[in-house]
Amino acid sequence: MSLFWIVIRELAEIEAMAASKKVITREEWEKKLNDVKIRKEDMNKLVMNFLVTEGYVEAAEKFQMESGTEPDIDLATITDRMAVKKAVQSGNVEDAIEKVNDLNPEILDTNPQLFFHLQQQRLIELIRNGKVEEALEFAQEELAPRGEENQSFLEDLERTVALLAFEDVSNCPIGELLDISQRLKTASEVNAAILTSQSHEKDPKLPSLLKMLIWAQKELDEKAAYPHINDLSKAVLEDPAV
């Protein structure tokens, strides 16, 4: 049982109480924590899941040696996946597509939305580099046919091509397409697709558990005063304000 479930259980116990808040002292709260037994193996798996999903291959290899925790995928594939992600983040979309196909050609064959977004990113990079004629030709030959089959693709294509109408794209209403955040968004989408093709979760479990903890604390705040973890990076219990 994790701290999250302790908070949930406490919330259930207090639910039927009167409007006045129950005060849980540090001693009482720490006793509840000490009563919970968490297997080290489960914690190790959680750490390994984070390292694998986020692509920290060297850290995963070291953690495997030190803890004996086996990853659920071949660690060698992490390097390939990170190479794809880095290529997109650097604007080398053609290289990224080649690398994805080398990994597993079915990823793009079975995911038309992902393939379109990669092609859209290629168009954005052509516009970024001032290759107007090449951008228009690419949009007409590669993206327009897909837009005719999908209204959402057509709208994305029109927004992207509209960048060519502005001399100063930094002040245009669609200038965010040229931001680094757009590259990161596309890279994350590719990363998630590769993980899914490897039967691995596309998102690490740890951040989700921390979000659940924050939510549970907020729910319990309405019922009781108790020691909080306000800074997740330090995970230090702070006494309640009473």
Summarize this structure briefly.
This protein has helices spanning 3-14, 26-35, 40-54, 57-67, 76-89, 93-103, 106-109, 112-128, 132-149, 151-161, 180-197, 205-221; strands spanning 22-23, 224-225, 228-229, 237-238. With 242 residues, the protein is mostly helical. The radius of gyration is 24 Å and the shape is elongated.
Protein model, in words:
Helices cover 65% and strands 3% of the residues. The protein is mostly helical. The strands form 2 sheets. Strands 1-2 form a two-stranded parallel sheet. Strand 3 (228-229) and strand 4 (237-238) form a beta hairpin. The longest helix has 18 residues, at 132-149. It starts with a helix and ends with a strand.
Secondary-structure map:
Elements: H1 3-14, E1 22-23, H2 26-35, H3 40-54, H4 57-67, H5 76-89, H6 93-103, H7 106-109, H8 112-128, H9 132-149, H10 151-161, H11 180-197, H12 205-221, E2 224-225, E3 228-229, E4 237-238
Parallel strand pairs: 1-2
Antiparallel strand pairs: 3-4
Mean pLDDT: 88
Tell how many strands the DSSP assignment holds: 4
Count helical runs: 12
Task: Report the biggest beta sheet as strand number plus sense, adding barrel if it closes.
Answer: 2 strands, parallel
Helix content: 55-70%
Compressed to H and E, one letter per element, the order equals HEHHHHHHHHHHHEEE
Low-confidence stretches: none
Q: Identify the strand order in the major beta sheet.
A: 1-2
Tell me the fraction of residues in β-strands, as a range: under 5%
User: Radius of gyration over alpha carbons?
Assistant: 24 Å
